[in-house]
Amino acid sequence: MHTDTINTIEKLENLGFEGGDADLETSLFEYGLAWHVGEAETTFIHPVSHGLENHFERTALANDTNVRDEYDWADFESLFSYIGGDNSGHPLPQQISDLVNYYGVENVFGTDYWEGFEILPETD
To answer: In 16-91, which residue ranges form alpha helices assigned H by DSSP?
Structure first.
């Protein structure tokens, strides 16, 4: 997805992006994660790792990603204790969201070496 097609909350909503909160803007700006599940891959939008306000990056993962294999460095027993149970059977977005909440964006998605693209919060 080109950044011009995902640079507003409205465009993201129209493309079917979701997040951990019912409100996509809250998901992105407060929880730092939104996603779109496509046929073969899930695209995640997350803040750039170096903290530029309202700047985001996108990362795509195959829908059949085995999270335990891909993130074999993670202490899943500690993660499961933190979230209150084993999330292995949950959809990929939930598993990645749990990892991000526990380990942080940079540890899960890596370091960004560009400023990302800007998405501004909607104004009332």
So the answer is: 24-29, 67-70, 76-83
Helix or strand holding residue 57 (H, E): strand 55-62
pLDDT confidence bin for 82, thresholds 50/70/90 = very high
pLDDT tens by residue, 9-51: 999 999 999 999 999 999 999 999 999 999 999 999 999 977 7
For the segment 115-121, the average pLDDT, to the nearest whole number, is 89
Alpha carbons 22 and 76: distance in angstroms, whole number: 27
- Which is it for the CA torsion 12, 18, 24, 30, positive or negative? negative
* Alpha carbon 110 to its chain's center: 12
Residue 6 is given by DSSP the state: S
Residue identified by tokens 């084993």 is: 86
Question: How many alpha carbons lie under 13 Å from residue 92 in its C-beta half-sphere?
Answer: 22
Question: Would you mind telling me the total number of residues written for the chain in this entry?
Answer: 124
Element (H, E) at 42: strand 41-47
How many alpha carbons fall within 13 Å on the CB side of residue 46?
24
